[in-house]
Amino acid sequence: MEECPSCAIEVAHKPEVCPYCGYEFPRQSSSRTLMAWVMAILLAWPLFEVIKLIF
Ligand SMILES: [Zn+2]
């Protein structure tokens, strides 16, 4: 069960929009997950380079 953060009504399976108050649920899009991975790799890359230089 998901709870609408706007009206606190419980809804089965997270809908796109709350059927009671019209609150738009934030989408867990795959592109956002991909962006998070790209950011993580970009942040970790200099660390890998340093490790390669040391060893
Ligand atoms: Zn709602």
Order of helices and strands: EEH
How does the helix and strand content classify structurally? mainly alpha
The separation of the N and C termini measures: 50 Å
| Residue-averaged pLDDT | 87
- Helix fraction, binned, reads 40-55%
Helix count from the secondary structure assignment: 1
For the sheet with most strands, the description reads: 2 strands, antiparallel
Across the major sheet, the strand order is 1-2
Strand content: 5-15%
In angstroms, what is the radius of gyration? 20 Å
Present as ligands are: zinc ion
Number of domains: 1
Query: Uncertain regions: pLDDT < 50 for 5+ in a row?
Result: none
Indicate the overall shape: rod-shaped
By DSSP, the count of extended strands is 2
What does this molecule look like?
With 55 residues, the chain is mostly helical. The protein has one domain (2-54). The chain has one helix at residues 30-54, and strands at 2-3, 10-11. Strands 1-2 form a two-stranded antiparallel sheet. It is rod-shaped, with a radius of gyration of 20 Å. The mean pLDDT is 87. The protein binds zinc ion. Residues 4, 6-7, 9, 18, 20-21, 23 line the site of zinc ion (ZN).
Q: Keywords, please?
A:
1 helix; 55 residues; 7% strand; single chain; mainly alpha; 2 strands; two-stranded antiparallel ribbon; binds zinc ion
Quick structural summary:
With 55 residues, this protein is mainly α.
SSE arrangement:
Elements: E1 2-3, E2 10-11, H1 30-54
Antiparallel strand pairs: 1-2
The structure holds zinc ion.
